[in-house]
Amino acid sequence: MYDNPLVERYASAEMAALFSPRKRIETWRLLWTTLAEAEMELGLPVTKTQVAELRKNITNINWKAAEKREREVRHDVMAHVHAFGLVAPKAAPIIHLGATSCYVTDNGDLIIFREALRLLENKLAAVLFALADFAKKERARPTLGFTHFQPAQPTTVGKRATLWAQDFLLDLDDVAARADSLRLRGAMGTTGTQASFLALFDNNHAKCDKLNALLCKKLGFPDTMAVCGQTYTRKVDSQILAALSGIGESASKFATDIRLLAHRKEIEEPFEKKQIGSSAMAYKRNPMRSERICSLARFLLTLPLNSSFTQATQWLERTLDDSANRRLSLPQAFLAADAILELCHNVASGLVVYPKIIERNLAAELPFMATEEILMAGVKAGGDRQELHERIRVHSHAAADVVKREGKDNDLVERLKNDPAFLPVRDRLDGLLEGKRFVGRAPEQVDAFIKNAIIPLKRRYRKAIIAGAVRV
Questions:
Q1: What's this model's pTM, rounded to 2 decimal places?
Q2: How far, in Å, CA of 34 to CA of 89, rounded?
Q3: What local confidence, expressed as pLDDT, does residue 173 receive?
Q4: Residue 308 annotated among the catalytic residues of the structure
Q5: Is 148 a catalytic residue?
Q6: N or C: fewer beta carbons within 10 Å in the chain?
């Protein structure tokens, strides 16, 4: 039988458990029990004994009985109503009283989604802390910057890490906002009108409102959605998947940069002692974790389209063509995001830096980067700005030609030293080629980012991480 690789290979056991059949049905049973308890408190003919029996058997699932019943009735919710009644016979007559299937399916999804979003929050925080630690350590190490993947003004290794971290910080904001904004669907009946509950409560509108207030209180939600049809609006799913897709965007950017830097031999992901990089080329240290991040991210990035089409094609109060798609796209999006963050944390926590290679690569391009300072120094020493600019232009092109065509080192500085026009600043030229002179405020920007963006997060998330919400 086919096994889902997201469960078997990539996602954490915690996330996989949230989308397991057991978690789904136990959540349904919690909702049935909570509904019965609330109905009892509002005066409907439900007894404490029945509620206690339901609560006692939430985890006592007779899977074979449910499967047999579903084959007969072709309805998964009613099959599990039947199975629940078998283990709680005294409560069987009042299970699902007044409810429609979406009472358990939609509310159950919202409960699980909120737990999954909170888990991703903690994992995003863990990635941010790992990147912040790396950025702090490497805050001032000059490295060649790139635009268009062509050499550009130097930055620092730590500053580049804050760019990765900032993306994940935006994802954390989105994921937290989605979790905070979730509202319960509540007990709304078959088309969202609460007609069945209004009948149960003998036209007492206040009790209908009180029922949903009790459900929210017991299940830990601030409120129900203002209105719904048979289902909660699938716009909520689109918003969730957009936030999860954002994680894929950030992770793919991060992992791609690591792959590029590994190619330049400047930074590598962690490589274990007995790890094999290639079955044929024994010397290789392929960035396989970063490649896996990119692969999973590509899958995750495609999933929001499902929820967009689902929301766009829902008819009136609801159609059932959302069901099969949601069973696939939503759990897999969470599992993929979880797997990606596990990998990102592993990579970010073990990044290997090669300072000598970084220095060599920077030194090869730094003479070109320093030409503006050399020009200004020459002008201050009495030179003609236009003449010096032309001489630098000619020497720069000649030096670049030597590098590209002959494979030799960049000799621009030597050419300038031997040019009489630069004689007044000749002894200062080497001093103008220190990498730290060209990184601007990059180290200070790292410090500010950690102080203003990361330290406040540590107060909010450190306890959860230490408690084991993420594997750090």
A1: 0.89
A2: 17
A3: 96
A4: no
A5: yes
A6: N
